[in-house]
Amino acid sequence: MATWSNFNLQNGASPLMEQMIFFHDHTLIILLMITILVMYLMMNLFFNKFINRFLLEGQMIELIWTILPAITLIFIALPSLRLLYLLDELNNPLITLKSIGHQWYWSYEYSDFKNIEFDSYMINEMDKLNNFRLLDVDNRIILPMNNQIRILVTATDVIHSWTIPSLGVKVDANPGRLNQTNFFINRPGIFFGQCSEICGANHSFMPIVIESISMNNFINWINNYS
């Protein structure tokens, strides 16, 4: 989850989020190199008094400053396309989770198991002393780590968006439409998210909480669920 004075991205809890962080750093380095080069050239232009009275054309320099940006864009586009295809790839999911957005709470259904469905409401900070303000819920999503998870997202009223930053997941929930994505949680923990599509007066008050546990504990939770 996000913490005070953290200006970086959250620690990735899935391979896809780690890849997105790598791509962010890669692109930022390229932007930094371009910024330094442009600033250096501008400072040189400002502080020298060189004059060329006979300069009429510069085909070579125009060729260079056309080709170099094209090559730079290729260095950004190829990793970006690779990542886009990775995000859309679905490899034999172990569990399918259905998420349904409402004004202003989420409903969840575990389609692979019988009679496991529940609503998830934000906890009022006065109800418990140990919860995170505006982030904790009464019913968390329980999922096993180190397994491929598919999530199907829709809504019943207006557009919502199911978003977990540390997993690199953001899926729009549209009424009458079923959107799908997948993720792989590679460590145990509690991961927080929120609706990231403005959906009405209480848009800020429908958080998402995933609790990642071992497969044995997940099977026990399934067996004990009533």
Automatic annotation (TrEMBL):
Its cofactor is Cu cation. The keyword Transmembrane applies. One of its GO terms (cellular component) is mitochondrial inner membrane. InterPro entries: CcO_II, CcO_II-like_C, CcO_II_C, Copper_CuA, Cupredoxin, Cyt_c_oxidase_su2, Cyt_c_oxidase_su2_TM_dom, Cyt_c_oxidase_su2_TM_sf. It is a multi-pass membrane protein. The chain crosses the membrane at residues 20-42, 63-87. Keywords: Copper, Electron transport, Magnesium, Membrane, Metal-binding, Mitochondrion, Mitochondrion inner membrane, Respiratory chain, Translocase, Transmembrane, Transmembrane helix, Transport. Gene3D superfamilies: 1.10.287.90, Cupredoxins - blue copper proteins. GO terms for biological process: ATP synthesis coupled electron transport. Residues 1-91 form the Cytochrome oxidase subunit II transmembrane region profile domain. Belongs to the cytochrome c oxidase subunit 2 family. This is Cytochrome c oxidase subunit 2. It comes from Pieris rapae (Small white butterfly). The lineage of its organism: Eukaryota, Metazoa, Ecdysozoa, Arthropoda, Hexapoda.
